[in-house]
Each structure stands twice: as structure tokens, then as C-alpha cells.
Automatic annotation (TrEMBL):
Residues 1-33 form the signal peptide. This is Uncharacterized protein. It comes from the Bacteria. It comes from Polaromonas vacuolata. Keywords: Signal. CDD domains: PBP2_Bug27.
């Protein structure tokens, strides 16, 4: 009995080889994801030890270690306003073993403000896993300022163009750009007075050297409670629990003004969906733990979980918002 063999054409042979390679690749990816993590995972914090980003990163690293059954360690890679460490993660092998604990608002601002110093594309160089926390901001004024509401502050600024001094934590800081966004949306002209950090700015605000400031709620709330500054409105969609009785900007008459600082965990672009989803599922449970919620709140952050898709859209929106503010305000950092 003769067995007839059909000759396989060159094109068909290439197609079969390609399909076989793709199938093998998918099997390997799935197998790797199922065994992930099989060694230590590194969570890069792009700031020095001790700050809010570092503290939150260490809380989450400890919890991820328990959830994943493998050690997750924090590595501080400070420099260039956080861009150095972010660049390290963007260039890392996308295998899930190098992650970024990012201050996403600052990264977005740096990418828009200093593109020549940033080695990554905030929208394309990462695979977002989740937003993990948000920090609200608040409008505060010296008690001597004749404005008890945000509407009254806007009216005061319009009556005295260029004379109302707004402090910030420095050129290009989230507080600075929030005040620039306020100028554009409220149609006012105020004087920007940059400081080297929030501490000196708040000291001069309380002393009356400057009249107003947009500051993070955690940094301002003790002074608000002490009566050394007056809170007019928060910059969030919902009222801030730590500032009872303080309306949102929208409630106070400035509709659409929403600003908060976001923290998130990102992997390098190209990380498999299986690994991203594994980390996302772990963070979803972790960020609901009362201990974690309290730890983040102690740093002024509201524990927040998002899916990778929602995190990706939030980062793109953040970059778009600050790019527009920087462009329209012709803001530059010397």
C-alpha cells in the first residue's frame, strides 16, 4: 500500500511555522505568569527615603510580599524630580520584577514641563497596574485676607489684578500649576511667589507675606484647625473628610476645577496582561484593608484602586491637563 504525501508550499510552510511559534510564545507567557513571581520583585521609589511616596511604597511592598508569596523590596532611585527612577523602570525588562511606585502627577508635569530631561513617555513607556492613592489640595488664605469664600477670593483678585500673592512649593510644582489652572479658569491675574518647598511657603502665608496658596490637604489641615490659615475650598469632586465644612471648588462656584496628586504602581510597557492582572488583583484586596487605608491616610492619601485600563486613562488625562496649563501659561523652569 502506498501512502501519498502532499507537498507543502513555501507560503504554507512559513504560515505553519509562524502559528507554531505564536502558540509556543503564548504557552511560555502563560507558564511564566503562572509561576510569577519566582524571585524578588523590586519596587522602585523615585524619591529619597522618608517622603510620602516612599512610605506608601513600603506599606504596599510589605503587603504585596504576603499576597504574592515572594519578597517585594523597595529601592530608592532619587533624582531629576522623580524622573530618574521612572526612567530606570521604563527601560527595565518587562517581566514584572521591576515596578514603579510613582507620583503620577509629578511625573506627568515633568514630562510636559521638561521633556528634554525625561527619558520616557508617560503614556507609552509603562503598563499601569493601578492608581493606589490620591491626595486632595485646598485653597487657603491668611486670616487677614478679606475673603471667606472662594467666590470672594476671585472677586478680590479681579479687583486687584496682579497684586494678590499666591505662594507655591516651587516653580513647576503641582501647587504652582494648580494656581495657574485657577488663574485661567477664574479669569484672574495673581502674583506667583515660588518657595523651596511647602514649609517656607506656609510660614510666610501665616505671617502675611503672601495672601493665598493652594496646598495639599495633609500639609494644610493642622494650620486650618489651629486658625492660622483659612480654608476656602478643596480641589476634589467630593468634600474632604479631614476638612469638615469646607466646600469643593465646584460647590464654591468654580465648576470643573478638580486637582489632586495621584500615586500609582506601574510596570514597564510590554509586561504581559497575565502579570499585570495578577498584580492588579492583589492590589485590589490590599487597598481595601483597614490597616492599609489608615497607613495611606496618615500620609494624606486616600486609598484608591483602579483597574489597569482606568489607570491608563487617568494618566493620559493628567498629562493632557498639565500640558495644556503649561502651554497656555507659557510656563518654563529655568
Amino acid at each position: 500500500m502506498k501512502i501519498a504525501f502532499k507537498k507543502i508550499s513555501g507560503q504554507r510552510r512559513v504560515l505553519l511555522s509562524t502559528l507554531a511559534a505564536l502558540s509556543l510564545s503564548c504557552l511560555l507567557t502563560t507558564a511564566l505568569a503562572q509561576t510569577y513571581p519566582s524571585r524578588v520583585v523590586k519596587l522602585v521609589v523615585p524619591y529619597p527615603p522618608g517622603g510620602a511616596t516612599d512610605v506608601i511604597g513600603r506599606v504596599l511592598a510589605q503587603k504585596l510580599s504576603l499576597s504574592l508569596g515572594q519578597q517585594v523590596i523597595v529601592e530608592n532611585r532619587a533624582g531629576a524630580g522623580g524622573s530618574l527612577g521612572a526612567g530606570v523602570v521604563a527601560a527595565a525588562v518587562p517581566d514584572g520584577y521591576t515596578l514603579l511606585m510613582g507620583a503620577l502627577t509629578s511625573h506627568s508635569i515633568n514630562a510636559a514641563l521638561m521633556p528634554q530631561q525625561v527619558t520616557f513617555d508617560i503614556k507609552k513607556s509603562f503598563a499601569p497596574i493601578s492608581i493606589v492613592g490620591t491626595v486632595p489640595l485646598v485653597f487657603v488664605v491668611n486670616p487677614a485676607v478679606k475673603a471667606n469664600t472662594l467666590s470672594e477670593l476671585i472677586a478680590l483678585a479681579k479687583a486687584n489684578p496682579g497684586k494678590l500673592a499666591f505662594a507655591s512649593a516651587g516653580n513647576g510644582s503641582p501647587q504652582h500649576l494648580a494656581s495657574e489652572m485657577f488663574k485661567r479658569m477664574a479669569g484672574v491675574e495673581v502674583l506667583h511667589v515660588p518657595y523651596r518647598g511647602s514649609g517656607p511657603a506656609m510660614t510666610d502665608l501665616m505671617a502675611g507675606q503672601v495672601q493665598a496658596m493652594i496646598e495639599t490637604a495633609p500639609a494644610a489641615q493642622a494650620f486650618v484647625k489651629a486658625g492660622t490659615v483659612r480654608a476656602l475650598a478643596t480641589t476634589t469632586a467630593s468634600p474632604v473628610a479631614s476638612l469638615p465644612g469646607v466646600p469643593t471648588a465646584a460647590q464654591a462656584g468654580l465648576s470643573g476645577f478638580e486637582v489632586s496628586s495621584m500615586f500609582g504602581i506601574l510596570a514597564p510597557a510590554g509586561t504581559s496582561d497575565e502579570i499585570v492582572n495578577r498584580l492588579s488583583s492583589a492590589l485590589k484586596k490590599i487597598l481595601q484593608e483597614p490597616e492599609v487605608v489608615a497607613s495611606l491616610l496618615a500620609q494624606g492619601a486616600v486609598a484608591t484602586y483602579t483597574t489597569p485600563q482606568v489607570a491608563s486613562r487617568a494618566i493620559a488625562a493628567e498629562y493632557g491637563k498639565w500640558s495644556q496649563v503649561i502651554r497656555e501659561g507659557n510656563i518654563k523652569v529655568e
